[in-house]
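Figure S7 source data.
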Amino acid sequence: MKTTFSSLYRIKSLHAPATAIGGARRLAPRRPPPFSPLRGLLPARQLSIETTKSIPSETYHGSARIKYPLLLTTAATLGGGFLYSRRQGAIQLDNGERSPTVAHSSALQERAHDALYDTSTSLDAVDFPTEKAILTSAPNVPPPITRDYPVILDVDLTTTAKLEQLTNQYKYEKWTFNNTVPGPFIRARVGDVLNLRITNHDESGMAHNIDCHAFMGPGGGSALTTVNEGETKTARFKMSQPGLFVYHCAVGPVGVHIANGMYGLMYVQPEQDLPPVDREYYVMQSEFYHEPPEEEDDGRLSSTVEFSWPHALREAADVVVFNGSEASLTEKPLKATLDDTVRIFFGNGGPNLTSSFHVIGTCFQKAYRDADVLSPPAQSVQTVTVPPGGSTIVDMKMTVPGTYTLVDHAIFRLEKGAKGFLNVSGEPRPQLYYSNQPPQPCEGCKLHP
Ligand SMILES: [Cu+2]
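Tokens for the predicted copper (II) ion complex:
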């Protein structure tokens, strides 16, 4: 009996057992690269980058000072970033021996603003202190940067390929930055000079690079960072625009490198960062395109699937997920405590689909639309639109305990894996949410565990 792929996928999905993801990472078995339009020796493409129209920083800073004086003062006094990082169990800032003294800090601070717009000094001659960037894998976010002066921020990225679980059924060879999909979250501050070192450890012989939407210049850094297997390159970029930016590989065919997992987020804090919150998380949506599983010698279908060029061209995604796999945020839900404000740095790697990001059971008290951190945020927003190569920042106040579900409200994508959970612990709050009957989720419900 001939079974079409779509029905096969559906049937297997319904009966597939949950498969634990994690444990040892392993490189995919590599075959010699055949000639292929996907692996051809095409030069890195130059992508045009439009500079975001600058909004005078005073506009929002003034508003922030009026709106959040208590929060900001408290955060500054108590060293909010330190307390925050302890609560998150995150890593301490690595200031190293080059941490400036208070007097030095003051001097740096004085020239920090000028340095932001300085065009007289080449980046190789900048004499800022050097700091090693804290890089975190999703859903973790590095602690807020509390310094008020620019640094040379060292960022190390390594490109790899590895076979790992994609859906509860199938494994897939993902192409990565630092062995994770999405790539690491990078946190910088406007005015910093990013000292990017990229190394290619992909054993297939494919070149990779980085096009970061925070890098203002032709190609977003791609032509300066293209590395062949075994190669390392270093380039410097001024962080002149604040915001939450997508970075991705841009080696051609760029769509294939993105479709296989080569993207991540970089947050460039404005001079005055957003108001502090209780928890920050990193969530990135993307979709995968794969062929049906091949039949193996014993007649069984392979548990590994491969990239599908025709599906990608048709933009007919087989899999849509948060944080690189179907199980990322269902087997390890995000966590919060009652009355926490939770911030999600949300990006969309695409490569094709626009996300209608929504969290079932709550709304975004603040939504920094398109991750614009200079304008006041939108308020009380239910769903945000995030295009491929775009991002948003949303804050949610969790006033009722229970499980909340992250979805793309283009809701059939739920059947393709786009689902995550946020568990909020705490005592019931009948003042806001009440029934005299126990909860009774519908049969087969995928949304409300
Ligand atoms: Cu690449």
